[in-house]
Amino acid sequence: MKIILLGPPGAGKGTQAKFISEKYFIPHISTGDIFRKNISEKTPLGIEAKKYLDEGKLVPDEVTINIMKNRLGMDDCKNGFLLDGFPRTVTQAKALDLFLNGIDQQIDKVLLIDVPKGLIFDRMTGRRVCPSCGASYHIKFNPPKIEGKCDVCNSDIVQRKDDTQSTVKDRLDVYDKQTEPLIGYYKSQGVLSIVNGTGEINEVFQNVKNILKDIHR
Fold this sequence. Notes:
single chain; 217 residues; alpha/beta; Rossmann fold; 47% helix; globular
């Protein structure tokens, strides 16, 4: 089973990816994790990627595609995989199709976890974390017992820079620009399915399983 997971930041992709990987016994392949691994191991591709990241630039498609080809060629991907964070562009999607066609394979399903922007904004801007012990909170959905204080160690809880209103807006704008063409690309191939991501975690996963049951026999 070869799956691509799409969805905006804050949609719960990480949680659903873990569930899917465990249920269907396929590796969860995250672009970010692969970049970090290649960089820490100082592989030729990692060294090249680091040059761009250190300058605050996006890693070019060609470098990203080569890193992903290398990862998808590993033994644990023989029975399938779940891609998270790749492809991000139609160029990357076409390169992935070309690579898979070359080994007589194809993407079985693209899952788009759909969550309204307003809810994502609430989810992300309301997140708080304790810098001392790492405990996580949400001012609306999981508030601390004492406002502004960690339940575990009583330290002041803080908002991460990634979760400020301006940063969240920028991240959502970038996602829209990148992903809209991808959605059209996979829709035209007949492999795109939309998952309602607004419910409880287990409810969302049940929706995922309902979609995947036709290709998992």
